[in-house]
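Researcher: Checking consistency across runs. Here is Flavin-containing monooxygenase again:
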Amino acid sequence: MTRRVAVVGGGSSGLACIKCCLDEGLEPVCFESSDDIGGLWRFKENPEPDRASIYHSVIINTSKEMMCFSDFPIPAHFPNFMHNTLIMDYFRMYADHFQLTKHIRIRYKMLCSSM
């Protein structure tokens, strides 16, 4: 019997969660409300209402070795302190390498009601 797991959000934590679920033989389904992966690391010229956005010039304040996924090092040719566009490139490489995108439902609005 396959166990399905809901993952909320396709940012860095969501991508890692999808990968961990797959490693454990689970069937993850990630619900991402925006139009792409990346979470708060994705710059948007016109942010959606009620959604945080980084500045276009944001650069990580920790080294690439400290912020990378343990099972997927950041390419050596990337600078030590990366611009947000390179972080997004890295997230896409990670998602592609482990075939995570087929488990992500983009623009998925979860509707919750109070009981």
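Researcher: Does this match what you'd expect to see?
Model: One thing to look at in this run: The first strand starts at residue 4 and ends at 8.
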